[in-house]
Amino acid sequence: MRQTAPGGAGGVAAKRRAGIATVAGVAAERTAVRAALAMTTAARPKATSTVETTTSAETRPTGSADMASSSSAHSIVDMPTPVVRLPVDLEPSPLDGGICGTQAPASAPDRVGWGDRPVVDSFGSARHHVPAGGDRNHMTERRTGILRLVTYVLAPIALFVALLSWSASSPVGSSADEDFHLSSAWCGLGLRDGLCEVGSDAEHRRVPEQLLAANQCFGGRPDQSASCPAIPSSVLTDTDRGNFTGTYPPVFYAVMSIFASHDISASVLAMRAFNSLLYVVMMTALYLLLPRARRGLMVWGSLLTLAPFGVYLIASINPSGWGVLSASTLWLALLGYFETESRGRRWGLGALALAATVVGAGSRADSAAYVVLAAVLVGVLKVERTRAFLIRAVLPILLIVIAAVSYLTSGQTRAVNVSGENISSPIGNVPTSWTDLLWNNLIRLPDLWGGAFGAPVGGPSQWLGTPLPGLVWFPATIAFGGVVFLGLRRFDLRKGIGLAMIVGLLVVLPLLWLMRDHILVGQQVQSRYLYPLLIILAGVSLLGFHSANAGLGRIHMLIVAAAALLADVTLQWFTIRRFTTGIDEFWPNLDKGVEWWWGFPFGPMPLWIIGSVAFGVVCALAVASAWRAAGPVARAEGGVVRVSVPS
């Protein structure tokens, strides 16, 4: 039989009325919170608000054993204390992941949102909470974890497959100046019988004639396929087309020379596959070592500039491919090196920065100059008057020294047109007046920037010697410009200085080369020389966004991915068509009327499909991994501030 406390039924009724009043007070409090939240949202239209509540400690009214014994049936507790979560334009610290530089507590109390309704008995007392979205949130986190794991594994594989398909999309001697680079690679480790033998003088070497014949067969002849007369690799010829006098840094050719053999086709494919693998390994290592807040910057800055020029150069034996790799990794590795607090990650990023320096400075003189730019750029972005910064600055100073030595000892820095002869140009003879030459180069300077995306420069593109369809370069150029402008939403003095440095070099460097050699845009100076600067520009423009989407909305990510995929798919199809039949044929089926192929068990059409699907997977994974970060709740513009409303 139930017992009652002193005071009888009247005391119990009074306590019940007090409990109901408490519930009514909490309801009024919730209404006030919602009103405050609405006012905050109206003042900040970009913010997307959510509200959570946390359960306060359970309390009981002091009194007799009657109330204690009946608490299982009619316990009166404080209602949840509302907690408002207001998105603001503040970003998590890249070092600790907290808000405003603070670390979130290791174990936060359970929170209940407005949709989580407490079970209330007939007296208005809350018994317990039933989470409305707990299972859903758990499933979402689980799916996110699975997607992250799939991305870590599948993205590098898909990228490597895409680059491998590119390495087999063109014949020996197909890239710019490849006859020079082939001879240099065969002699990269010195004299070897049957590969590189003594020439007629110190500036000549005897190399397999096939290394030079391919370019002479179809170079500058877009209607000519790569079906050229076969020359045995044992037939050597004397040539000065090679890095025999130190025109280029020696590291790239020494590494490529490891794969040189009497089977020229197999050797070239092995070199291209190695360069593709090197790119994938270094980019994957950079992604895993970077603080999570910087990974979106790497992904979208790279994807924005990877196609069409990057995939073509990376999977080739042109040293510009190593320049692309160095520009894509070095400045980000140094940025992460200064920002991370983990000693292991710092050492890993430092080692990666050193490798990127060797890759860049060991391939081209201009890439060595870009190493100096990357080190100075990161110094501007992260400089501070602390002992820790001075200690960490030793590494970039060392990298600058390495790059400077490579640049100063390279003959590539000499003028192309030393004698100042009157070279023919797409617009006729070069103007003799210095002011006339400067003016004509100034008005044509953007041609070189657009040429980095495949736009015709002085007529045909300087990649393949043929005009490229607009579907290759137009979407990629539009996407690049759009993302750079979107990145300017976040702007401060340091970022402004960094952007000014890069844009200034995009103007000054080509003008110096052109005016020094007395030539016009479209002659000698090629767009690929400036391409690494555009890669760095894309990344720096996105600084200030510490999320997986790097400040891009969902529609922006889809546009960037679509532009990259269109450029890759179209250029690869066009490249295969160019060398299998010549561009005087128009049918879309690449297996039709093939005049040249490697002798693989599959034709060019399956290769193109495999490469296109693989690159499509890379683009899809990039979008999927950042989809939630670009959603309406988790905005890239900031984190979340929790404001507890006092009772």
Structure description:
This protein is an alpha+beta fold and 647 residues long. It has two domains: 101 residues, no CATH class; 480 residues, no CATH class. Helices cover 55% and strands 6% of the residues. The protein contains 20 helices and eleven strands. The strands form four sheets. A four-stranded antiparallel β-sheet has the order 3-1-2-11, covered by helices on one side. Strands 6-7-8 form a three-stranded antiparallel β-sheet. A two-stranded antiparallel sheet has the order 4-5. A hairpin with a 6-residue loop joins strand 6 and strand 7. The longest helix is centred in the N-terminal third of the chain and has 36 residues. It is globular, with a radius of gyration of 32 Å. The N terminus and C terminus are likely disordered.
Unreliable runs, pLDDT <50, ≥5 residues? 1-7, 44-132, 415-427, 636-647
Q: Please give the count of helices.
A: 20
Domains counted in the coordinates: how many? Answer: 2
Query: What's the overall average pLDDT, rounded?
Result: 80
Count of beta strands: 11
Shape: globular
What proportion of the residues is helical, as a percent range?
40-55%
- The chain-level structural class is alpha+beta
Strand % is: 5-15%
Secondary structure blueprint with pairings:
Blueprint: H1 8-43, E1 50-54, H2 65-69, H3 71-74, E2 81-87, E3 111-113, E4 118-120, E5 126-129, H4 134-167, H5 178-186, E6 197-198, E7 205-208, H6 210-218, E8 236-239, H7 251-257, H8 264-289, H9 292-314, H10 320-339, H11 343-361, H12 365-382, H13 387-392, H14 394-408, E9 424-425, E10 428-429, H15 434-451, H16 470-487, H17 493-517, H18 531-541, H19 554-580, H20 604-626, E11 640-644
Antiparallel strand pairs: 1-2, 1-3, 2-11, 4-5, 6-7, 7-8, 9-10
Helix pairs in contact: 4-8, 4-20, 5-6, 5-7, 8-9, 8-10, 8-11, 9-10, 9-16, 9-18, 9-19, 10-11, 10-12, 10-18, 11-14, 12-14, 12-17, 15-17, 16-18, 16-19, 17-18, 19-20
